[in-house]
Amino acid sequence: MAVLPIRTVGDPVLRTPAEPVTRFDAALARLVEDMIDTMYAAPGVGLAAPQIGVGLRVFVFDCEYDPRDESVPRVARTVVNPELTLAADGELQDGSEGCLSVPGLHFPTTRALRASVRGVDETGTPVEYRGEGLLARCFQHEVDHLDGMLYLERLTGEVRTAAVRALREPPPSPERVQAAGDELRALRRTGS
Ligand SMILES: [Zn+2]
Q1: Is there a domain that residue 165 lies in?
Q2: 59: which strand partners?
Q3: 133 C-alpha vs ligand 1 centroid, how far in Å?
Q4: Model confidence over 112-123: pLDDT tens digits?
Q5: CA 100/CA 113 separation, integer angstroms
Q6: Which residues pair with 115 in a beta bridge?
Q7: How far is CA 40 from CA 89, 134, 159, 173, in A?
Q8: Is residue 160 part of a domain?
Q9: Ligand 1 center–CA 146 separation, angstroms
Q10: By C-alpha distance, which of 4, 49, 46, 74 is closest to 137?
């Protein structure tokens, strides 16, 4: 059990396609445990292995998880070597998407409305999950991570421009917020 640091945008591991898992051993079980601990601690509803620096095709998810509601039971699921299938109807969704590896930012991102994943769990047992809405978005987002892609690359047009601009600007540090407040108060005192 360990909460591991999450790699953030700019780290090459997030740009590197992950390798299929071939050994279903204690090390894999441990990796999955650590990923689940790290996901809940973040808090997040999905996490892919490259986000903790491990280049293997593994992701975990719990899209019901709400850190503000203790009554929701935690049910984390694991997909190893996932195969993603988008629904044939081609229906899309346009909700806001964020990523633990791109902290503090969210952008409207077009995704398939329905999708499914097939793979195995950490013991090698076959699993299949079907999703709509947030769950389908989660599957697409996590499999993108395993292919070395961040959701930012899915953005187009003005949203993409806004994302590029936001990434160039570092988030305001507490010191900068404090300094701006002090400056504002000083201005008020001098009446200018
Ligand atoms: Zn992500």
Answers
A1: no
A2: 48, 79
A3: 16
A4: 999 999 999 999
A5: 22
A6: 86, 131
A7: 33, 17, 29, 25
A8: no
A9: 10
A10: 46
**Cβ atoms within 10 A of the Cβ of 148, count?**
16
**How many separate domains does the chain show?**
1
Per the annotation, the verdict on 142 as an active-site residue is yes
100 CA from centroid of ligand 1 (Å): 5
Rounded distance between C-alpha atoms, residue 116 and residue 142, angstroms? 12
Question: The domain spanning residue 56 has which CATH number?
Answer: 3.90.45.10
Residue 178 — very low, low, confident or very high, per pLDDT cuts 50/70/90? confident
Residue 188 inside a domain? The answer is no
Residues by chain with Cβ below 5 Å of ion ligand 1: 99
Give the C-alpha separation, 115 to 81, whole Å. Answer: 16
Query: Is the residue at 191 inside a domain?
Result: no
User: What distance in angstroms lies between residue 192's CA and the mean position of ligand 1's atoms?
Assistant: 45
pLDDT in tens, 87-139: 999 999 999 999 999 999 999 999 999 999 999 999 999 999 999 999 999 99
The reported pTM is: 0.87
Contact 47, 35 (CB under 8 A): yes
